[in-house]
């Protein structure tokens, strides 16, 4: 019996954050259950027991422990299975810098980048046009975010310091979505940011998961 079940959806950036964490940790002993968001399966009474807001991802372990929120899940899994993706608790300063980087990602990056992804990607699947005013304002925020990150990444290799951590993983799904929506130049036009992105993308576990997903998508659309 697998150690836990991950409830997610195909093409969900929040699910992919967890899958990338598991790939980096080399952990495969889990079951992935894909819910169909278009059919509203995330709003079933059964799923509300796992996620009070009726969203994905969520996990349930064999001993009945349930957790939702992608970043909380990633952190739990990294701690539970000792993935080398977090500073040690004994290093109080490095842990504080990790928390700081995590807050910056969630509060300053994920919100506007998520708006672009929703307007340009999700709404297309719903057959709805993007609200260009929302996109343009969100794009300004993402540009301003990476202007600051460009300065910070001149002095460190990764977002939370010189080690690759969960925070770097947190960025990957939404940045990929920015590339897919034609906004990849927010990354490639900034030297330090694009070098950081290249370092993240060149990690073997990340590369092979993204390659497998791309192949699965291509096969599904044939
Ligand atoms: N902050 C949450 C966001 C979860 C979220 O918005 N998930 C989306 C899919 S990527 C969802 O469930 N959407 C369907 C809905 O809200 O009904 C996380 O990081 O897990």
Automatic annotation (TrEMBL):
It is an enzyme of class 2 (transferase). This is glutathione transferase. InterPro entries: Glutathione-S-Trfase_C-like, Glutathione-S-Trfase_C_sf, Glutathione_S-Trfase, Glutathione_S-Trfase_N, GST_C, Thioredoxin-like_sf. Transmembrane segments: none annotated. It comes from the Eukaryota. GO terms for biological process: glutathione metabolic process. GO terms for molecular function: glutathione binding; glutathione transferase activity. Belongs to the GST superfamily. One of its GO terms (cellular component) is cytoplasm. Keywords: Transferase. It comes from Microthyrium microscopicum.
């Amino acid at each position: 019996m697998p150690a836990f079940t991950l409830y997610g959806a195909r093409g969900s950036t929040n699910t992919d954050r967890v899958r990338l964490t598991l790939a980096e940790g080399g952990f495969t002993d889990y079951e992935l259950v894909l819910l169909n968001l278009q059919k509203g399966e995330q709003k079933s009474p059964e799923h509300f027991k796992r996620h009070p807001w009726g969203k994905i991802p969520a996990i349930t372990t064999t001993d009945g422990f349930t957790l939702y929120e992608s970043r909380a899940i990633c952190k739990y899994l990294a701690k539970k299975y000792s993935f080398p993706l977090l500073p040690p608790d004994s290093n109080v300063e490095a842990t504080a810098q990790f928390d700081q980087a995590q807050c910056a990602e969630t509060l300053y990056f994920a919100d506007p980048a998520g708006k672009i992804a929703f307007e340009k990607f999700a709404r297309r699947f719903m057959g709805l046009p993007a609200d260009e005013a929302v996109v343009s304002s969100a794009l300004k925020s993402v540009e301003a975010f990476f202007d600051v990150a460009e300065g910070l990444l001149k002095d460190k290799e990764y977002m939370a310091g010189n080690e690759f951590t969960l925070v770097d993983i947190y960025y990957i799904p939404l940045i990929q979505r920015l590339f897919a929506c034609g906004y990849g130049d927010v990354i490639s036009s900034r030297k330090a940011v694009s070098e950081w992105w290249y370092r993240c993308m060149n990690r073997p576990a990340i590369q092979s998961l993204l390659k497998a997903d791309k192949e699965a998508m291509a096969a599904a659309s044939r």
